[in-house]
Amino acid sequence: MTNGALAGLRVLDLSRILAGPTCTQLLGDLGAEVIKIENPKTGGDDTRAWGPPFVQGADGEPTDLSAYFMCANRNKLSVAVDIATSEGQETIRALAMQCDVLIENFKPGGLAKYGLDADQLLAANPGLVYASISGFGQTGPNAHKPGYDLMAQGYGGIMSLTGDADGLPMKTGVAVADVMCGMYAAVGILAALRHRDQTGEGQHIDIALVDTQVSWLINQGVNYLTTGDVPQRRGNAHPNIVPYQVFATKDGHVIIAVGNDSQFQRFCQFLGVAALADDAQYATNPARLQNRDDLMAVLVPMLGALTTQDIITGLEAVQVPVGPVNTLDQVFGTDQVRARDMIATMPMQGAKEGAVKLIGNPLKFSKTPVTYRHAPPRFGQDTSDVLARLQQKP
Length: 394
What we know:
With 394 residues, this protein is α/β, with parallel strands linked by helices. The protein folds into 2 domains: 10-216 and 338-389, Crotonobetainyl-coa:carnitine coa-transferase, domain 1 (Rossmann fold); 244-248 and 253-324, 2-Layer Sandwich (formyl-coa transferase, domain 3), CATH 3.30.1540. The protein has helices spanning 19-29, 67-70, 86-96, 118-124, 149-155, 176-199, 209-215, 218-227, 261-271, 285-290, 292-304, 308-317, 328-332, 335-339, 383-389; strands at 10-14, 33-38, 54-56, 62-66, 77-80, 101-104, 129-134, 203-208, 244-248, 253-257, 322-324, 343-347, 355-359. The strands form 4 sheets. A 6-stranded parallel β-sheet has the order 5-2-1-6-7-8, sandwiched between helices. Strands 9-10-11 form a 3-stranded antiparallel β-sheet, covered by helices on one side. The mean pLDDT is 96.
């Protein structure tokens, strides 16, 4: 029994791919029991086949554990149930009666034909928190359209802001629309559970990839709403702060994030151009923003003549925010990542290496730490145990 903050909660996970699984993995890390329902006709979650790379079994052959699947499916029990059958539907209904949370990402209305939609399950279990993730939400003219991370990034505007000014609109390097939707879903579920605990009332949470994508436009979105001006792509430059971007160096790249005018003065002193900070064109951030191109014409060649480490060492000494652009081998090789336990090594029976490495949970609790209890499961491995324990037929 875990002492996690959500210990004692049971989650029925009918989701797949990334947004829903990200949410339920987080709930599992916090101590909830997560029962992942997978379709026996398809071999389970689609992402099991999204490789290579795959975990190698003891026989040296690839397993059904792709790295993509493992990134969002630890701390879960895999149960194979075909909800297209009457027996499968009855199993899910019976499980839902014993769960606190159900999360699904079928097309809006897709579970109604099986008797597993929010209205029917909430009528049977009024305390259930039922969360539905979809591309565009349960309402609106686009509700019927499928949702994928790339489509959400495009529709929700983030791609129009990402990439070089003269280049193509760019998606982010990871499926961040899915991930952020999963994070919002977890927050919504926790809020609904607090309401349930106070009132006994469950509820239906409707969360959409596109809605969450729009919500995290943050300052760029409010810039537009305030002015009516459509923001343009600026590559790695910041729309409201200068200089705050990536610069090429003599041997690589460096991030410099000058957040206020006093930092800019110290930055200029480091470069040996202290007078630049007193120039009316650059003395304040609004002035630097207005004269960005002229300032870059001065800074870019100066920084390009220095090594990355010289810049980092020099600016850290004068307390100007600066940092490297790490590749992933550098990220996971840093003392900081190790000190913060951001690599989770989990034992796994039947794996060639005997264990798998996953990305750790970033939440650090003083009383109820996250726990890593179950490695990402093989397809259907827990079906008999879970259904027998919850008095269901396997």
